[in-house]
Write a structure and sequence with these properties.
One of its GO terms (molecular function) is catechol O-methyltransferase activity. By secondary structure, the chain is α/β, with parallel strands linked by helices. It has 12 helices and 7 strands. The chain folds into 2 domains: about 80 residues, no CATH class; about 170 residues, 3-Layer(aba) Sandwich (Rossmann fold). Helices cover about 55% and strands about 20% of the residues. It has a 7-stranded mixed beta sheet, sandwiched between helices. Bound molecules: S-adenosylmethionine (SAM).
């Protein structure tokens, strides 16, 4: 007798929570439950499923078609945390304005943002894209080559960022980074940024664009840029890729060095 009464008393609270956090539940459903279910049913990883879809629906050699097909898959079929079309436009605009020659990407995943950047780069520019997961890197390699970009435009480096950054000078002959796109695990943002500062590869005017600084969030990174005084910076407000109602932001930093 007491149990139904207690359950009834909690019903309004439960409903309030469901309504308030509906976008997060929807994300959990799409990103976790659907993924687990499809992993079991197909025997393929989510990244392999995305690649199969792109391969069968996009036009090879046409980066726009590859990005559009990815966006379609991520909005209608399954969720993958590509930068997506809305936040992608912030990246597009920066590339148009800055025409960077040397770009470092941390977190390639399936290569969506890599293709997005590669299609907007000036002639002779090069992206060094770092991915620590070998299976993701294998998919990214296929996507990047399918889009028509060769090794001269995109060099994929399969290793964790904290092992790659200290070797960018010695192993890859880099002298300056014009643009860094950070989109790997958020807990690495702060340490990797500090490592980049120490590497001497950031010069006055080097740009760092960091995704997801509000969701899942990178508070330590934001504290560091606020306190260090090394940057002019702002946060572009946006919503999480392929989701409604979850607020996110991209931090755009311009390195000024010690003033
Ligand atoms: C959010 S996804 C990147 C999405 C991609 N930038 C895009 O928009 O298409 C994050 C990726 O970063 C990789 N990653 C996470 N931490 C890393 C690290 N410390 N070094 C290299 N790759 C990392 C993960 O394996 C994952 O594939």
């Amino acid at each position: 007798m007491a149990f139904p009464a207690i359950a009834l008393a909690f019903l309004p609270l439960l409903l309030t929570l469901l309504i308030r956090y509906r976008f997060y539940f929807a994300l959990f459903y799409r990103a976790v439950l659907v993924r687990l279910w499809k992993d079991c049913v197909t025997g393929l990883s989510r990244e392999e499923r995305a690649y199969q879809y792109v391969l069968t629906h996009a036009t090879p050699g046409d980066p726009d078609s590859i990005l559009d097909t990815f966006d379609e898959w991520c909005s209608k079929v399954e969720y993958i945390s590509n930068i997506g079309p809305k936040k992608g436009k912030i990246l597009d605009r920066l590339l148009m304005e800055q025409s960077p020659l040397t770009v470092l990407e941390l977190g390639t995943h399936c290569g969506y943002s890599t293709v997005r950047m590669a299609r907007a780069l000036p002639l002779g520019a090069r992206i060094y894209s770092v991915e620590m997961d070998q299976r993701n890197a294998a998919i990214a390699e296929k996507i990047i080559r399918l889009a028509g970009f060769d090794d001269d435009t995109v060099e994929l480096i399969v290793n964790p960022s904290d092992e790659v950054i200290p070797r960018l000078r010695s192993d890859f002959g880099l002298e300056r980074l014009d643009l860094v796109f950070m989109d790997h695990w958020k807990k690495c943002y702060c340490a990797d940024l500090q490592m980049l500062e120490g590497s001497g590869l950031l010069g006055k005017g080097s740009i760092i664009l960091a995704d997801n600084v509000l969701f899942p969030g990178a508070p330590k990174f934001l504290r560091h840029i606020r306190k260090s005084g090394l940057y002019d910076w702002k946060v572009h407000r946006a919503t999480l890729e392929y989701s409604k109602g979850i607020r996110d932001g991209m931090a755009e930093l311009v390195y000024q060095g010690i003033k």
